[in-house]
Design a protein that fits this description.
Elements: E1 35-39, E2 45-47, E3 51-60, E4 70-75, E5 83-89, E6 95-101, E7 110-116, E8 125-126, E9 130-135, E10 159-162, E11 168-170, E12 174-183, E13 186-187, E14 192-197, E15 205-211, E16 217-223, E17 232-239, E18 248-249, E19 253-258, E20 262-266, E21 272-274, E22 278-287, E23 296-301, E24 309-315, E25 321-327, E26 336-343, E27 352-353, E28 371-376, E29 393-396, E30 407-412, H1 417-420, H2 424-442, E31 449-452, E32 465-470, E33 483-485, E34 495-500, E35 502-503, E36 506-507, H3 510-524, E37 527-531, E38 541-542, E39 545-546, H4 560-570, E40 586-588, E41 618-625, E42 630-634, E43 639-645, E44 654-658, H5 664-670, E45 687-693, E46 699-703, E47 710-717
Parallel strand pairs: 2-9, 11-19, 21-28, 30-31, 30-32, 32-34
Antiparallel strand pairs: 1-3, 3-6, 4-5, 4-7, 7-8, 7-9, 10-12, 12-13, 12-16, 14-15, 14-17, 17-18, 17-19, 20-22, 22-25, 23-24, 23-26, 26-27, 26-28, 29-37, 29-40, 33-34, 35-36, 38-39, 41-47, 42-46, 43-45, 43-47, 44-46
Helix pairs in contact: 2-3
């Protein structure tokens, strides 16, 4: 083949071979293989007009040879399209050979290489490149191996091979990529090699890297991880070159990275409910090859165009069962809650829902098989201002059995995680305030442990209380309430609570979320609302009626009444057993010896509400009063002795003795009613003791009028 034009085909040259048994690949075989293309060495210097022979063999990494394959001989052109020198077809043993009459290149040396473009079952393969300088002098005496040209800028060509990788693996497994890097058929040692995933729409992801050993071999481990969308990974190895060697890249190999599956079911539940009813959602989660224990199941309301609402969170036990409750409420404008259960999955397990027929991508599926739940009724409207009469008191529900500090799981809605995660710390601080105030006033160990269940997490241990941190649509729950705790006469842990991160589509202030979280937490451990105490931390609305006045200016921390009520339930040593037992909805009033009922039936030997005159009594007083707070006692006799003191030399308090029938709250807050004392009216610092005559039914009141918290100790008794 002579002449000035490059030939299209190369002539086949017969050659001698020794006979050995080598299997060959036929097109009918369905299995795919990695091609390895070898180009025999070419002299680096040759005279114009001499014949260059291109020969070699196409095989696979598994040892098969490839017959009837088209091999292209090309010149590697920097910054341009490579030039095709000609084509050759392999024989029955995968061998090929062809000749070309040498002629000078327009500039520099020829960089010859062979390439096989691949087929359905054989991957693309490229050979080592050889640099050949064609000139007018005789090069027959030169060594027949690849070497750089006389130009100082020419680099050695390289060939990198990635050995066959698995067709599929499961996410989380470890595999090792192996291969070899050579130059001119010789191993290239200590070269830096990378293994990457070919991504056409973003920068290729590096899976691992390493250096070759003295044989040019590399071994690069990778702990597999699944892609967000794709399952099939196009993987290749690359040597980026250095000052002496050119870059080379292997062909792609496809490997599927799969996750483990499972199933989730949701038991039947009522198809309709009224506002305020408690609905139980239960079901079963199975995970292929993994224990379900400790995993998280979310019960959600599906919303097509917004993040789904989180109704409740379930803890999965060792048998795969979960059960959780929800306080029925409107979630959509059509009064239909589209219920489904979902296991969100993780890096190695698929996402599973009861509204899809199989596993979904991590970002969700169609969710077309939800279960409709019709909500009816209405939330009681708040009637005109009405404040119950009688002394201030609290409701008590129960004491939970704790063998260790209560464990609280904070569960942000995974569908609105980025919106609510900023309030995780607020939830913690709102709950921790009880520990701070209880230990400060009573000692003991009131600690609470936390864990945050982020999307894809599982429970470290079974929680006692779950705080669902959520944000709703503008027509849903968080416009009607800021938090909910599910309370019953037969409580079962974990107890569900919900804290709203938004209200009317607006982010709530951190301090308000903290106050809600603390309020709902203490409900979950058994404390009810406060009644008749203005702006108390535990005031709220029950059955459409406010339990106290001043709901719009509620205190940000628990009152002494709240703290005393907790101690009534759990004792003064903390939440851990043994604890006191209380009747469901039992009443507790601060400062009365008969505090189980602030309004007892008349008896002849009561020391609480003036049913006797001369019985002896002696009340020990220990109070921490926040700014503006007060405490009072109703006196049954016609005379009184008292002594109050504080160690604070900077801040004082006031003592009032009020006549019978005086409204204590109105007097303290508004100055209403008459008052009298055993001494001149005024502020008291450090201590005050006195004895005076009073009418039975009078009240003695201590009031903090400072801007700082003060502690008051003392006693009240008969004169």
């Amino acid at each position: 083949m002579t002449g000035s034009k490059l030939p299209v085909f190369l002539r086949y040259i017969p050659h001698l071979i020794c006979i050995i048994f080598i299997s060959t690949i036929t097109a009918a075989e369905a299995q795919s293989y990695t091609g390895v293309l070898k180009l025999d060495p070419i002299s680096s210097k040759i005279k114009t007009g001499n014949t260059i022979t291109f020969s070699g063999q196409l095989a696979t990494t598994s040892g098969h040879t490839v017959p009837d394959a088209t091999i292209y001989i090309k010149d590697d052109v920097n910054f341009g399209r490579d030039t095709v020198i000609g084509t050759i077809t392999t024989d029955e043993n995968g061998r090929f050979a062809g000749t070309w009459t040498a002629q000078p290149r327009n500039s520099g040396a020829w960089d010859f290489y062979a390439v096989y473009e691949g087929s359905k079952n054989i991957s693309k393969a490229r050979s080592t490149a050889y640099s050949v300088k064609v000139s007018s002098y005789d090069s027959s005496s030169s060594y027949n191996s690849p070497s750089p040209s006389s130009s100082s800028s020419t680099k050695y060509s390289t060939q990198i091979t990635l050995y066959r990788i698995p067709f599929s693996v499961y996410a989380g497994e470890s595999i090792t990529f192996t291969g070899k890097l050579t130059s001119g058929g010789q191993p290239l040692a200590n070269a830096f090699v990378k293994v990457l995933e070919d991504d056409p729409f973003s920068p290729d992801q590096r899976l691992g890297s390493g250096r070759t050993n003295h044989n040019g071999e590399f071994s690069i481990p990778w702990k597999t991880s699944a892609g967000l969308v794709e399952t099939d990974f196009d993987i290749y190895a690359v040597f980026d070159g250095d000052s002496a060697y050119k870059r080379d890249r292997s062909s792609n190999q496809v490997m599927s990275v799969l996750k483990h599956g499972g199933s989730i079911t949701l038991d039947s539940f009522p198809k309709s409910a009224k506002i305020g009813e408690v609905i139980t959602f239960s079901g079963t989660l199975t995970l292929d090859g993994f224990s379900p224990e400790g995993n998280v199941v979310y019960i959600k309301d599906e919303d097509t165009f917004t993040g789904d609402d989180l109704l409740a969170t379930g803890y999965v036990d060792s048998s795969g069962r979960f059960s959780t409750n929800w306080f029925a409420n409107y979630a959509d404008n059509d009064s239909i809650v589209d219920v489904y259960a979902v296991y969100e999955g993780n890096d190695i397990l698929y996402r599973l829902t009861t509204c899809d027929s199989g596993p979904t991508k991590s970002f969700g599926g169609r969710c077309s098989n939800t279960i409709p739940l019709k909500i009816s009724g209405s939330i009681p409207a708040t009637p005109p201002k009405y404040i119950p009469t009688g002394s201030e008191y609290m409701e008590l529900f129960y004491s939970l059995d704790f063998s260790k500090a209560p464990h609280v799981a904070i569960v942000p809605n995974p569908d609105s995680y980025n919106e609510v995660k900023g309030h995780i710390h607020s939830v913690k601080s709102g709950i921790a305030i009880w520990e701070s105030y209880l230990e400060k006033n009573y000692g003991g160990y009131w600690d609470v442990t936390f864990e945050v269940i982020e999307p894809g997490d599982r429970f470290n241990s079974k929680p006692d209380i779950i705080v669902n941190l959520d944000t709703h649509d503008d027509h849903a729950g968080c416009t009607d309430y800021y938090g909910v705790a599910l309370i019953s006469s037969n409580p079962k842990k974990p107890i569900q609570t919900t804290v709203c991160s938004t209200s009317n589509d607006q982010r709530r202030a951190d301090v308000d979320v903290a106050r809600t979280a603390g309020h709902e937490f203490i409900h979950a451990v058994g404390l009810g609302h406060t009644f008749n105490k203005k702006s108390d931390y535990m005031c709220s609305v029950e059955d459409g009626r406010p339990t106290c006045d001043g709901l719009n200016s509620k205190a940000k921390v628990p009152s002494s009444l709240n703290l005393e009520a907790v101690v009534k339930i759990y004792g003064s040593d903390g939440y851990v057993n043994p604890n006191n037992r209380v009747q469901y909805e039992e009443k507790f009033a601060s400062g009365n010896p008969n505090y189980d009922n602030p309004n007892p039936a008349p008896t002849t030997k009561s020391t609480s509400y003036c049913n006797q005159v001369y019985d002896n009594y002696d009340w020990a007083i220990n109070k921490v009063l926040e700014s503006g707070w007060y405490s009072y006692w109703k006196i049954c006799s016609n005379g009184i002795s008292y002594s109050f003191s504080t160690n604070d030399e900077m801040y004082g308090f006031m003592i009032h003795v009020l006549p019978p029938e005086t409204d204590v709250e109105n007097f303290v807050n508004y100055g209403d009613g008459l008052y009298y004392t055993c001494e001149e009216y005024g502020k008291i610092w450090q201590s005050k003791s006195n004895t005076c005559n009073i009418a039975p039914g009078s009240h003695i009141v201590i009031q903090n009028i400072e801007e700082n918290t003060i502690r008051i100790d003392g006693w009240i008794g008969n004169r």
